Every structure is written in C-alpha cells, then in structure tokens.
Write the structure tokens for this entry.
Amino acid sequence: MKSSPWWKEATIYQIYPRSFFDSNGDGEGDLPGITAHLDYVQQLGVDAIWLSPFYTSPNKDGGYDVANPRDVDPRFGNLEDAKRLIEQAHQRELRVIADIVPNHFSDQHEWFQAALSAGRGSKERARFHFYDGNTDGTPPNNWISLFGGPSWTQVEDGQYYLHLFDSSQPDLNWDNPEVNEDFEKTLRFWIDLGVDGFRIDVAHGLVKEDVLKNHSDPQGLSNALRLDVAMDPSKRNALLLTVPYFDRQGVHAIYRKWRTLFDSYAGRDIMAVAEAWVHPPENATRYVRPDELHQVFNFDLLTAEFESKALFEVIDRAITLNATVSALPTWALSNHDSPRVASRIGSEQARALALFVFGLPGSAYVFAGQELGLPDGELADSDRQDPSFFRTNGVIKGRDGARVPLPWSGETTPFGFTSAKPWLPISQSWKELTIESELQDPKSSLHLYRNALNLRKDLMTGSGEINWIQSPGHGDKGNSLLSYTRGTVTVIMNLSESAQECDIDGRLLAVSNGTVEGHNGKKVIPARSSAWFSA
Ligand code: GLC
C-alpha cells in the first residue's frame, strides 16, 4: 500500500555524503559515490534519501558552514554530479531531500566577507548580527555558543558578530528581507534541479529577539552548555525553556511563506522537515500546522531509554500531539549529531526498537550505517574534527563517532570505502559489519532492515492508526512488553532480559533477534526482541 502524498509515511535514508562512498580516492565520500550505490539504497526498501550538506564549504562544521548554498563543494563533485544523482535516484523511485542551513552562513560566504570590509553601520553588516561590545570591552551579551565558548567574536574594527555555533558560522539576521529573498532563491534553485524536499537545519533558531539582553540562566546551566542529543535530557529541556534565542514565534511566518513557495510547484509534492529542538514537545507541533512545514523531528525518541514506560510515552505523545494539527510523526533512532543507537542502547535493543517503530504511522528515518547495526567508531582525540571538541578544549568529545565512513566490503579496513586513507579511521573490528558480509548472513541487521522496510511498505503504510494492546498500565505484565495492532498486523516488543510468553494468534512475519517459538495462540518472544505477526 502507498500513502499519498509520498512523504506522509515514507522511509527516508539519511546519507552523510562524506562518509558514504569515495569514488575518486581522496579519502572522503562524494556525490558520484552515492550515485554508484543507489541500487543498494533502493534494495533497502526506502522511499527517499536525505543528503546532509554537500555545498561549497570550508568544512569547519561538517559542511553545515555553507559558503555558497547554490553550488557543490569540489570535494563532493559538481552541479552536474548533483543533477545526475537526482536523476538516477528518481529512476529508482527514490525522492531526494536536500539539507538547507538558514540559521547561519560560513564566514567564507561572500556576504560575510563583504560585511567585514564594509564596516560598521553598513547594509552588508545588517545581514548578520553585528554590534558594539559593552563599554568595558566585553561582548554585547552573555550568550554561549552551543559548541562551547562565547557566541560572539570580535572583528578588527572592534564590533562583535553573533554565532550560535562555531565562530566560522555567523548567524543571519532574519529581520532583513534580503536574507529571506536569498533563501527563497536557494529553495527554488534546488527544486528546479529536481529535489523533492528539504531538511531545515536549526529551524527553530532563525529569529532572534532581544539580541542585546543577557540570558538570565537561573539554573546556571550554560556553564556546561552543549545543547545537543548527548546532553542529559532534563538539563537540555530546562535549558531549552530558558534560552532566549530559540523557538521565537517569528519563525512561523517564515515557514508559512516557504509553504506557499513549495505549494506553488503544483504536482511536485515538495516537502520539508524541521530540525527543531524545542521544549515542551507541544511546541514542536507548531512547525507542522497545516500551512507550515510537513514534518518535524521527534528528538525525544533519540534520547529515550530502552524501557517500556519511557518509550510508550514518547511514541504515544508524538502520535497524539501531531494529530492535533493533522500531521503524522517522525521516527529517527540515529543521526549525524547523536551517538549511534546500537552504542546508545545496545545492538539487540537497537534492532528490536527499529522493527517496533517501522510499524508506526508517520515517516521513519534511517541514518546510513544504522541498517548494518554499526556502533560509534572508536576514535583517538587526534582523529577528531567536530568543532565542539575544540571549542570545549576536548571536554566534549563531539559527534565524529557517528560519522565514521561505511564499511562496504573485504577483510581489512577501510573495507572498500576508499582506496586512500579514510577521513576518519574505520575500526578493523567492523569486519563482520560490512555490507558484503551482512548480505551473506541471513540473520544480519541488514537483512532485518530490508525485510522490515519492505514489509512496512506492503502492509503498514496507509493503514491508519494503531491500537495499543500492551502498554504500561494496560495489559502489561511486569512493565516489559509493548504491543499494538495496525491494520492486519500485530507488533510486539519484549524489552525484558528474559523470553516472554504472549497471547498471539497469527503468522510470524519478522523477528528482530532470535526465534519465536509457540503455537495455539501462545508465542514466546525472545529477550530484547520485537516481532510482527499477521492476523
Ligand atoms: C544542526 C546540524 C548539526 C550542525 C548544527 C549547526 O544541528 O544537524 O550537525 O552542527 O546544526 O549547523
């Protein structure tokens, strides 16, 4: 069954281009490397690919520091390569989502270079947030960069500019109409080249208010400031409630305008998904009101423990809250900013959770390598490249572990990813986790993903709501089982450390770990495992 429009219940495969496949022997992945492996992606059973940034960039923050949003960085290829990738994806019925970065540019963008030379009070500086410091020489306010250190950097003539991330990523001033005009030009540029949608980076950050006011930070949280997935969730949420630079109401006017732009491409079904780290979760649904964006990431799932009460709450709440604005939720277990799910909750648990969420209504996101069950790469400090590592003097290790290149084939590292030295080392211990080796093993994580995603497409998409059978406080024996039915399928997850007997009639369609025993309406689900049954 197919949902309509295409993005409503799609499975979307996130590709970090630098880590996917190196076609030209420079140690980094590139666009032709992706194009050459689209058959692999198609066979996984996904509907779309989301490409992390491949635009011209000095690469201080993995390409999220964009120097020209309407061109391809030579490390990744050129515009012809991008066009070919899109065409080849479309030939395989794969849609393409580009990652757009509207909160900031790279300091190498021509606008910022012009702002530096044009000087204080110029219209060039008005595209960013340039201010004089305080009379005692300190920055205009006390805001701290999310990568550590102050969020202000001083330029030669003494003024400061704001950067919520690295000092090489000056924040744009969205009160300046030129900024929106330029972004609309960028959106149209990529739509005209063939892309089907956008992932909007830091979607909650564009509009700033009271830029000269201090962050009062009553709980002293900003001392340890690092606002990301790896942060203790309660601290992160407390911080999200107090920071003055996120989730201002003005951002919604921008997305309403963009929605009109997307909808003006009749018949194209252009979609957008927001990266919006906001709290409380109700606020996230504002981004997916019917006249705004189409999807918003549900970050609570990226941090939830493998425990039935926590998972039930996160899943049920996402479904319920999205329904209030007639939207469907998104399910992501890993991305390029967070520890890989197999490292975070354990590899069996990661498989179980994936099979469980693939049955849910909404869109499922899979971060390349997740299908192989990859853990985070083991890295020495000398390998690290993430700016948050450097801006915190190594206190925070950063996100490189999740970005280690994919192991493709062969017995020794770098496992066919490149003929050169890979930009991050690939551990020899990944020998059994290569695509080649997993393709040969019917019990591999890759086979599980392929089977599950194809079943999801055939049986689940477009099947409407779920009905919980076992959940905390309802039919659950010992807080260890979660189960629901959807359409003709029953999905059950045993989160406990021991096998559990359940009342289920029906034919086994898939199991994440081990084998399901049983008959006559009783089935034994292995420990830390999920299964699908047809009625
Ligand atoms: C988003 C990206 C992250 C990047 C940051 C700044 O959170 O996902 O990788 O570092 O924005 O652009």
